[in-house]
Design goal:
CATH architecture of the largest domain: 3-Layer(aba) Sandwich
CATH class of the largest domain: Alpha Beta
Structural class: alpha/beta
CATH topology of the largest domain: Rossmann fold
Number of helices: 11
Oligomer: single chain
Number of domains: 2
Distance between the termini: 19 Å
CATH superfamily of the largest domain: HAD superfamily/HAD-like
Order of helices and strands: HEHHHHHEHEHEHEHEH
Number of strands: 6
Radius of gyration: 18 Å
Strand order of the largest sheet: 3-2-1-4-5-6
Strand content: 5-15%
Length: 243
């Protein structure tokens, strides 16, 4: 099922092999079922400032840093970047709306996949555009013993958020692995673009309202219809590609 995709990945990137040693997980929409809250919070905050924005826009912009999301909208509406005061005011409002949405639940089967990956002695990183402190703090509570603080890349670590490759390039540097020794699990078009631009094999997991074709067109080598399907196929994918 996977051999043709992997062979094409190796060929297209002129890599010597594909042998995963690390798995980089996005957070929102992959580990936490939080995107619906982010979408609502962005819509409410931006509408409060008279800016047009829809929940679909939120999903299409998922993975950007908050500042980048605001700048993109200001460029579209006002032909200028937002000021720092405008960014801080809007993001603060967005954060308040997000916190009022209630408790964020895990994505079903995410914990089981993480446990499996850890048992296979693969490095585990979280690579997120989020600066939402509550979600980052919740990683230990929801997935105890899985994540280490030094194995995280967040909005605070990058100058350029997704879709720029910088977040995943930083993850490669921190993990000490080559691009052909890593796998990315993403649910967002911009996240997929970021990972593929960094030269990493990228698995799309469709956990939101977007059509699978959106993730494929963004560059994902494989797209699964949810985390359960990825969990079911994981051993077939990973064990046949480890040296």
């Amino acid at each position: 099922m996977f051999s043709n995709k992997i062979e094409k990945f190796i060929h297209d990137n002129n890599y010597p092999t594909f042998s995963p040693k690390a798995v980089f997980f996005d957070m929102d929409g992959v580990l936490f079922d939080s995107m619906k809250f982010h979408a609502t919070a962005w819509v409410n905050a931006l509408h409060a400032k008279g800016l047009p924005f829809t929940e679909y826009d939120a999903y299409m912009n998922e993975g950007r840093t908050g500042a980048s999301t605001i700048d993109e909208l200001f460029l579209k509406e006002y032909n200028r970047y937002a000021t720092e005061d405008e960014k801080n005011e809007i993001y603060s409002l967005k954060s308040k709306f997000f916190e009022s949405c209630g408790k964020v639940e895990q994505i079903a089967f995410a914990a089981e996949l993480l446990t499996k990956v850890k048992a296979q002695n693969l490095q585990i990183f979280v690579v997120t555009g989020s600066g939402q402190a509550s979600l980052i703090d919740n990683l230990d509570e929801n997935f105890p013993g899985i994540f280490e603080k030094e194995k995280m890349v967040t909005a605070y670590d990058v100058n350029n958020g997704k879709p720029h490759p910088e977040p995943y390039l930083i993850a490669l540097e921190k993990s000490g692995v080559k691009p052909w020794e890593a796998v990315v699990v993403e649910n967002a078009p911009l996240g997929v673009q970021s990972a593929t631009a960094a030269g990493i094999f990228t698995i799309g997991v469709n956990t939101g309202p977007l059509k699978p074709e959106v993730l494929i067109e963004s560059g994902a080598q494989i797209v699964f219809d949810g985390m359960k399907e990825l969990l079911t196929e994981w051993d077939n994918f990973i064990e046949n590609n480890r040296n």
